[in-house]
Amino acid sequence: MTVHDPSSGFDRDDASLREQLRSVAETMRMPSDADQRIRERMAQCYKDAEQHAVPINIEAARSQRRAPAWLAFVVAASVMLAFFLLVPSGKAYSFEAMLRAIRDQPLVRAMLTQASGAESIGWLRQRGGVVVAVETRDRVVWWDDAQNKPGEFSRTTGAVPAPMDSASTDSLSDDPQMMLLQLLTAIRSQSGDLHWTIRSESWKEVGDLVELRVELEFNNHTSKETTYVFGIDPKSQVPQWVRIESSGITSTVQLRYPDSGPTSLASLGVKLPAVEMLLPKSADSIEVSEPELIASLPTTPAGETPRSKTPADEPNASAAPLGDNSSSSQANPMVATRLAARRWQSTSAVEVPTLTQDMVSRVDQRLEELWRQRSVDPVDPADSYQLTRRLYLDLTGRVPRIHEIKSSLDLEPSALVEELLASREFSNHMATVWSRLLLPEAVDLSQFGGVEAFNAWLANQFADNVGYDEIVRQLLQAEGRVGESGPVLFYTALQLKPDELAKQTARVFLGSRIDCAQCHDHPTDDWTQQDFWAYAAFFARISRPEGRMEAMSPVLRVRDVPRGDVKIPDTEQIVQPRFLGGEAFAEQPGEALRRQALSKWMTNSRQFSRATVNHVWTHFFGVGLVDPADDFGPHNPSVSPELLDELAEFLIQCDFDLRELVRVITSSGAYRLGSESEVHSADQLRYYAQMNTKWLTAEQLYDALMTSTRSTQSFVATDETMTSMMFADTSRAAFIEKFKAPRGSAIDYQAGIPQALSMMNGLLTLQATEAESSGMMNALSAPFFTDSQRVETIFMAVVSRPPASEELDTILPMLDSAASVEEKQQVLSDLFWAILNTAEFSTNH
């Protein structure tokens, strides 16, 4: 059928008409409560009619209406037809539909944060082992199907867990953990008794989400009605958050759907014998190991401190009792005696390819699996110009020169990677990257040779292709005078303090934030105060000055000494060394081998390899497989545990050669994707289906500015001497100090207004763009350049690409209309200045 449109003078076929009707229909959806609102309005109309009724002549009315009756019928029928055609009911949202969507998720993670800052983490697994549990720092509660009531296990006492009695259950009905557990039982898909009855439900669209309001009455331990308001993503149909309203208390729970998590109560530290009695009879087995969670608490006789069994893969481990020292009898027995339940994952190897290209294929395979699981499509690959600029910034810390761009267009990307990896600039840039990780912010090492001396030492290590594990061993075992350049500056920067060294080494080398456990047990992770100080004890026996570190003589020698201990703050309890997430260190009296033992354990730990891989991945993608990169744990699982483990094993197999790891990452399909997308998708960016845009660091910005402007201060550090000169460059150091931003994610803008104003009006920018002082502007004044070539040169130098046709169409008329050579130079100078101040120049995309 063809419909003729007399107003337009052309015919539209069915497809065109259907498309218009569909467009109209999608913009005219009826709300879910439309039926109720219509009924209420009709009732009000009847009421109004009764109040204002007047006598009428029925026969007269009939005679007046009879004539146009056919017309009224046609109009009414047309209106009804249009209503049903153009106003469909739209997408329906209901509690049952939401449960079906949740059923497709392998795991649900719910987090409730109280006003005090205490957190409760809830887990719901419905496949591969049923888990309905909530954990806090001190306890685990779960729903026991066999007993039809909650069970509880104390992590503090390690007491045998048991189902709660009715009195305990009733008293906990408003407890945050029980509220969270009740929520998980409500959204759990299970056969038989659902434990609740729906009293009412309704939904409405609020911004980008749909709010589904459900009132439930539970049929188990409490008869209270609870209202849940779910914030549902219309695309996936799964809730992103839920607001709980019960007994006048309102709590908001964040919901996430990770790929990995606990597969049993044993994974949460609940003792195995008790779990076997409390699990449903249908459970055939209990899994203990997890991708991110660690082995369960061991069975310990009542009254004793829980202590894990010694894993076979932990070197220098023994079953020496914790805190076994002469002062222990004076220590407060209630202070810091509990050890964390969490342990690092087993060091058992995974099978990985031995050839680099095969490992690249494995990475691509894992990411394609991740994209399918997350229902995301990768964007188109980056073009040659974009990829060349990205590789130069990531591998050398600067933008490419024009001749380097043109020569790279004839190379395969892998060949360009090899060329850059072989350059001294790669070593220098890696030194800058790792120095930012290793040294604390705003550290002043000026009296000890400066940060530059530490950077120069690191650059030499990377230039000599020293394995990263060996670099870390040199750092952990460093000895020498504090004024000497080299690894000892790592200790100098951290003021030789055991607590500072513990925090920094745990973050960088193990990817774990133990800072909060320094003064008390960690509020959101499993680390305890005992764990923190037992780990810090490895740095207790180092020679250090008396009094303030700032007054220390540069000739003081850092070395191991046979005496020195740490104590729990505000107590006399001495803590013996214990590997973080591992076992106690068996130390003989008078020995000074703590740091050697730590470095051996550290660099042989699979967690060390995981953390290293994650740091390198974060550098290239802006977001780590675990993000933040220094926050590994069950509360923050990897987006792809398999990929993380396989890359960690690959790094071990290639003797911690970071260049091999870089080859794999930069050759992957994900790294070579574009950074632009027609639609904004957070999932595309998070799961590496689109390259994140990263802001340049202060060091990158300076080097890029010097390279782009052809400054006389710019030079390529090709050897050790020139590397030292580059790091000691006072102009560079001053710029970095001014543009240094607080450390954070590379994808977030960390600088501020002063930096932006300095880029626009600073002396460096003015010298680089003014015709009288700019090397670039002087070069562009050559008579053999056409205006198009001049514009292209500026674009290639600054943003590493030729100008787009619309950009040329805007700029060339301005140059053509210039009345003099000087005016044309001013137009080019303004263009140069403008592009230098764009986000395109200040970002790596």
UniProtKB/TrEMBL annotation:
Disordered: annotated segments: 152-172, 290-333
Keyword tags: Membrane, Transmembrane, Transmembrane helix
Record has rRNA-binding as a keyword: no
Ranges annotated as spanning the membrane: 69-87
Coiled coil feature spans: none
Every DUF1549 domain range: 363-542
Chain ranges of the DUF1553 domain: 594-812
InterPro entries: DUF1549, DUF1553
Stated name of the protein: Cytochrome c domain-containing protein
